[in-house]
């Protein structure tokens, strides 16, 4: 039986969601070892830079990518919105809120993807079913943000919400760049830029982290750089090419299920009533987003 490219992408995305669900939990554990957000990002991007440089060297793809100057605009804007904007908000948010809240609120990236990419930029037209699913996912985020147990809005929840809003913009430029350069070169540039920028920011804004703590945290930094900022981002970009940005992001919304499981096992942090209640509209919305029919186009998939 021949498996379609779309089904292949979905299979790889499912495995990716397991690792993605584990990441917020491991990050919270790493922060208890006195790692700081910007320093963590800098070292993680450094690991990812080496990883992608090795791949480009083995595949001998340096020359054909470096000489492609037409992709500079798309690459630069993808770096700005994803490598810098999204990830700094994501890592810092985990200093202020729980990994479960981060997982739930980050689901709104799927909703904002359909709103921004579908309704506003009209890159990937959406259906009523898509919009209804997006609204349900925004409702779930609202339940977490405005629950009565909090006297005021949690800064970590707001940061991850902002990250979810800007991510679709970066994904538009990332997909544009992929029509001109290889996935690995785009990830190398994103990683190199992130390593340089966040190393400088860490030196300026954060206390220095002792070398022994960095060495002790090496397993986490390798996971963060090789898996989260490396292989998982490649899977996303691969899926962008085989399906669409909106379909990929919607399918990624399975990750919070694994975050709740890992948080319960590793952190002994059982989900709250509010979080459980928020899951219901989230997954109804996810079902609507991922089951809406799409047809392939030159850019991606249409409804």
Explain what this protein looks like in three dimensions:
- By secondary structure, the protein is mainly α.
- The protein has 14 helices and two strands; from the N terminus they run H-H-H-H-H-H-H-H-H-H-H-H-H-H-E-E.
- It has one domain.
- It has helices at residues 5-31, 37-59, 62-66, 72-93, 99-105, 108-120, 128-145, 155-178, 183-205, 211-216, 218-242, 245-251, 255-266, 273-291, and strands at residues 295-296, 301-302.
- Strands 1-2 form a two-stranded antiparallel sheet.
Radius of gyration of CA atoms, rounded to a whole number: 19 Å
Following the backbone from N to C, one meets helices and strands in this order, namely: HHHHHHHHHHHHHHEE
Q: Report the end-to-end length measured between terminal Cα atoms.
A: 26 Å
| DSSP summary, beta strand count | 2
Number of domains: 1
Class per helix and strand makeup: mainly alpha
Q: Total helix count?
A: 14
Low-pLDDT segments: 295-303
Question: What amount of the residues lies in strands?
Answer: under 5%
């Amino acid at each position: 039986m021949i498996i379609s490219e779309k089904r292949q992408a979905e299979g790889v995305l499912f495995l990716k969601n397991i690792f993605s669900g584990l990441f917020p939990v491991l990050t919270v554990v790493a922060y208890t070892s006195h790692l700081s957000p910007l320093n963590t990002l800098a070292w993680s991007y450094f690991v990812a830079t080496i990883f992608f440089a090795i791949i480009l060297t083995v595949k001998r793809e340096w020359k054909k990518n470096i000489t492609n100057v037409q992709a500079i605009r798309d690459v630069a804007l993808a770096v700005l919105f994803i490598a810098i904007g999204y990830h700094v908000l994501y890592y810092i948010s985990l200093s202020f809120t729980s990994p479960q809240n981060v997982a739930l609120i980050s689901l709104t990236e799927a909703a904002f993807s359909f709103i921004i990419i579908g309704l506003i930029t009209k890159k990937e037209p959406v259906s009523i079913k898509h919009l209804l699913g997006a609204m349900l996912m925004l409702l779930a985020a609202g339940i977490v943000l405005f629950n009565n147990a909090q006297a005021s809005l949690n800064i970590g929840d707001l940061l991850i919400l902002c990250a979810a809003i800007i991510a679709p913009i970066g994904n538009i430029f990332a997909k544009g760049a992929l029509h001109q350069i290889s996935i690995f070169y785009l990830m190398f540039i994103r990683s190199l830029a992130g390593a340089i920028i966040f190393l400088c920011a860490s030196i300026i804004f954060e206390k220095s982290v002792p070398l022994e703590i960095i060495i002790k945290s090496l397993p986490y930094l390798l996971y963060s750089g090789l898996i989260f900022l490396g292989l998982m981002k490649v899977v996303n970009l691969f899926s962008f090419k085989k399906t669409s940005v909106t379909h990929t992001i919607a399918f990624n919304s399975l990750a919070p299920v694994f975050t709740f499981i890992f948080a319960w096992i590793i952190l002994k942090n059982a989900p709250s009533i509010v979080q459980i209640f928020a899951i219901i509209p989230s997954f109804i919305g996810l079902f609507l987003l991922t089951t809406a029919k799409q047809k392939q186009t030159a850019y991606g998939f249409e409804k």
